Amino acid sequence: MPRDEKGGRVAENEFGISAKAKEIIGDQGYAPSYAMDAHIAKWRAMYTATDEDFYKVPYVTSQGKKRHRERASIRPARKVCREMASLILTEDTEVSVDAPRANKWLQDYLDRSNFWPTGYDVVEDAFALGTSAWTLRIDVQEETRILLPRHDARMIVPLEWGADGVTACAFVSRVMARRKAYEQLQIMDEDDGTYHIRTWLLDEGKAVDAEALGVLPDFDTESTFKPFGIFTPGISNIYEDLSPFGPSLFADAIDEIKAVDTAWDAIVQEVALTGVKVFLDEELLEVQADAEGNVVPVGAMEDMVYRKLAGKEMRNYIEVFSPNIRTDPLVTALNTALAQLGDTCGFGQNYFQIDKPGGLKTAKEVVSDSSQLMRSVRKHENVIRGAIQDVVGALLDNARIHCGADIEEDFGPVSVSFDDS
Fold first, then answer.
1. N or C: which end of the chain has fewer CB within 10 A?
2. Do the Cβ atoms of 190 and 131 come closer than 8 Å?
3. Spatial CA neighbour of 216 closest among 135, 140, 149, 134
4. Cα dist. 308→211, 298, 366, 376 in Å?
5. Is the separation of the CB atoms in 76 and 260 below 8 Å?
6. pLDDT tens digits for range 375-415
7. HSE (side-chain half, CA atoms, 13 Å) at 357
């Protein structure tokens, strides 16, 4: 099992930036802060419902042995992120520019690429961990093409930022080259007036020859557009002063998330523990010895017919215990927790309610009913619009320069129209 930079064990499928990647970033003259890492790890544990302090529930068996069970979860943290992303990026979202040839190329690209499904994931990532990114990957071959990989907060290292946002950034990911997995570090920053994409490949903490694996170590985009867009929710970061990272959509709702899953777990446990119990007189059961020689009764749940015992007086050989399930108070507790979760995360108190008269409302119906939700959606849209404009502007300029796309040099500002109907 791999270890992190402090020597601690990390899960095989858990992403982390290696100490070598951080060393290379420092060697380039940057001194980034990693102060948000602990917050991001906490938010991810809640988002994936893997926080062991909460989702591992201790109990003691009837034999006095200590055990743990998994707390049942409806993944409330992921639910709020997924729902908010679906309200912001829809199939009716429009991106365009004024220049006709550039706009025609852009619309063709949006139609043939995976732009909107990937964009939805980018926005959900931003709500989940506070920050995400869309970057340009320029695949220089006989026919150069531009791809748009996404990155979540764990993979992003802001290097320079100010009032105009992040202007230099490092991105760390895992890639396949020549059938082998590598850690890839890319630094995207300005050099002599244009943006460069510098790439390192690492194998088990050691730098390898990237060019020998078909990767350009230093690619000059010849463009003044930064080749990335940083996405954050429209919420202030109160966790680390002056950090360019944003907070998770549910950063202030950790207790509410726990309340929701505590109530849901209680419902699951109630149903499981109050199932019908059938008690049979041992005279109706066969007996046999277990592996340790103890005599135990053997019965089958499917048994429907039992033999009548000759010479025995009538008595209750079969007794059924069927306790009542406390459905109403448990559902009330769940609804109370859901209402508070929705309120804290900007949806309003009615968005996630269950057992409403007339069934669940559609997202648009809820939006029209909730001024709080509309205000939240607009606030997030205003921030996300800028990130999409950064990505699309860089896409158009680099397609013109490197792909020979028929695009005007001055294609004008990028317009993003969200569907708020």
1. N
2. no
3. 140
4. 85, 18, 62, 70
5. yes
6. 999 999 999 999 999 999 999 999 999 999 999 999 999 99
7. 0
Token couple for 182: 């590598």
DSSP assignment of 326-372 equals -HHHHHHHHHHHHHHHHHHTTS-TTTT--S-TTSPPPHHHHHHH-HH
Maximum mean pLDDT: which of 175-189, 271-285, 299-313: 175-189
Question: Tell me, what amino acid is at 319?
Answer: E
d(CA 75, CA 305): 44
The CA distance from 135 to 150, in Å, is 6
Q: CA-CA distance, 216 to 210, in Å (whole number)? A: 7
Residue that has been written with the tokens 């990767």 in this structure: 215
Residues 38, 225 contacting (CB under 8 angstroms):
no
For the chain, the C-alpha Rg in angstroms (whole number) is: 29
| Residue labelled with tokens 């150069």 | 144
Structure tokens, 142: 């006989």
Q: 319-375 pLDDT, tens per residue?
A: 666 677 788 899 999 999 999 999 999 999 888 887 655 444 555 555 555 788 999
Q: 358 near 213, Cβ under 8 Å?
A: no
Q: How many C-alpha atoms does 2 have within 13 Å on its Cβ side?
A: 15
Global pTM value: 0.85
Question: Checking DSSP bridges between strand 194-203 and strand 206-208, what pairing results, if any?
Answer: antiparallel
What are the residues whose beta carbons fall under 8 Å from the beta carbon of 398, sequence distance 6 or more? Answer: 136, 138, 146, 221, 223, 225, 227
Whole-angstrom distance, CA of residue 401 vs CA of residue 107: 18
